[in-house]
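Repro:
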Amino acid sequence: MDTSEKLPEWLVKWWHSSDTGMSSKYIAGVFSDIPAMRQTTEVAAPRDTSDVGRCVRLLDLATANGCDWRGRIGDLATGHGDRWAALVPRWSEVEAAYHEDVAAQNAHKQVCLIGKNGRKRRTPRNDVHFPPSRCWWLVATLASDYDPYKHSDPHPFRQTGLSK
């Protein structure tokens, strides 16, 4: 991509970082005012928790640099593909689920490094299971009606009223 077209420095730095993906680059392409950037990526929407994370971090970075891209996320609901159309109406819920998953993952890491005797371990415990990802479930079910946990009994999210 030719970045000489008045791209803000923060956006150039982000674009060349390792924290990008197709969906976050698509957001940057749509919301930037640089025609060359809009032509750089294909229509791509998040497909999993990692994709959502890259999008959330880009939106946070844009906010920190004075751009209200999070406020414009609704613009992706029309004319940007079926996946965006399905995700956008519940984007705030997807973001909240992402933050909950990150918190759960951090808590899980802490628990796994504490032995049954209460002392710190060098290797993770195998008897502590990682909680399922609500963000991943939302992205999967909203965009394709595919419920990866539909055969789980009890279902990890439907019990709490989080179904479609």
